[in-house]
């Protein structure tokens, strides 16, 4: 049993706060000059330039699904912000643009299937050996099968969940274990590690002209995982957030549009901004979430959809 003496009254609390405030206001101890690191609770916004907050210098970012599409574009974003980049993908080789990435930053391509846990674990060990640690991770590997619900073969539904849900789960778990192990080698003592999952607007609403029941539900699972891990890993100083794009111009969308002739027009007209998204539209958000610019954000989602998620007037 706790005795009443263990609690302080509201009046005592008020008094304590007043005393601390008065000590701060009238203290004779010199306050830090602008080029000194301020103590907790002091005016950090005066001493940290906003552009520095976005820097990924000295960090290694692992990106699944980075052979092409959104993953490759976000690899460029991380590299341009100063990171070293490790790309993991099931494809035997990356898109030709990978050669341009190599000129910007130290990077390496690893052929790895995110559904193969043991293989993925070995790949993460190799990344650790090659780069010395993992400070950030983007999970962009994914597929989007398009077929009416009543016709979906269970084997293909399982494959979609294996890649989009379990692949994301395995990747996040392996990355987080490395981040915990690496804490002693942190870039800055108070820096956070960051996992950015690629969700989808499909977790929130059905998409006109598409039949993607297993995809929608798999992205709903990713969004739930973001919230759970955001909470569960917060004490380890690992932040977990997601970017949920709308319709972005990549092979994944073009493959669906190939067998649905009316879809191309829908993809342009359905978003309130009346255009498809470009991979460029996602780059800044990825750097924000990977960097200390988002140091107090976890368990969150950035929807980049041209307004698609919000609804429509006509
Ligand atoms: N393009 C869009 O409009 C859009 C919208 C919302 C969300 N997304 C999501 O963005 C992510 C990337 O999509 P994209 O448009 O760049 O597609 P994409 O097909 O261009 O690229 C996906 C990449 O994932 C890789 N991949 C697939 N299965 C894999 C596996 N088992 N192991 C490792 N790698 C694997 C592919 O080889 C490919 O390089 C996906 O998760 C997708 O669901 C895309």
UniProtKB/TrEMBL annotation:
Pfam family name, one: adh_short_C2
Presence of keyword Transmembrane: no
Claim: Oxidoreductase is one of the keywords in the record: yes
Domain of life: Eukaryota
Keywords: NADP, Oxidoreductase
Similarity annotation: Belongs to the short-chain dehydrogenases/reductases (SDR) family.
Name of the protein described by the UniProt record: Uncharacterized protein
PROSITE patterns found in the cross-reference section: ADH_SHORT
Residue ranges of coiled coil: none
């Amino acid at each position: 049993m706790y005795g009443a003496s263990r609690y302080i009254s509201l009046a005592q609390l008020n008094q304590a706060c007043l005393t601390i405030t008065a000590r701060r206001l009238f203290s004779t101890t010199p306050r830090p000059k602008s080029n000194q690191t301020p103590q907790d609770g002091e005016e950090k916004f005066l001493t940290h330039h906003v552009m520095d907050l976005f820097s990924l210098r000295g960090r290694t970012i692992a990106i699944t699904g980075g052979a092409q599409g959104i993953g490759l574009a976000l690899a460029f974003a991380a590299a341009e912000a100063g990171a070293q980049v490790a790309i993991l993908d099931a494809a035997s080789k990356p898109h030709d643009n990978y050669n341009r990435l190599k000129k910007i930053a130290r990077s390496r391509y690893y052929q790895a299937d995110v559904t193969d846990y043991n293989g993925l674990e070995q790949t993460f060990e190799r990344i650790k050996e090659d780069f010395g640690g993992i400070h950030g991770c983007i999970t962009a590997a994914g597929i989007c099968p398009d077929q009416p619900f009543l016709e979906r073969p269970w084997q293909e539904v399982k494959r979609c969940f294996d890649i989009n849900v379990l692949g994301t789960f395995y990747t996040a778990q392996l990355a987080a274990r490395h981040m915990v192990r690496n804490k002693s080698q942190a870039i800055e003592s108070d820096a956070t590690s960051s996992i950015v999952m690629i969700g989808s607007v499909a977790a929130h609403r059905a998409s006109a002209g598409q039949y993607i029941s297993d995809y929608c539900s798999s992205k709903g699972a990713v969004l739930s995982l973001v919230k759970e891990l955001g909470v569960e890993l917060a004490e380890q100083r690992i932040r977990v957030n997601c970017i949920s794009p709308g319709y972005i111009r990549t092979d994944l969308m073009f493959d669906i549009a190939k067998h649905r002739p009316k879809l191309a027009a829908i993809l342009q007209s359905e978003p309130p901004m009346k255009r498809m998204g470009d991979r460029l539209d996602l780059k800044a958000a990825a750097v924000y979430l990977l960097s200390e610019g988002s140091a107090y954000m976890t368990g969150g989602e950035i929807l980049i959809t041209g307004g698609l998620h919000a609804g429509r007037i006509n």
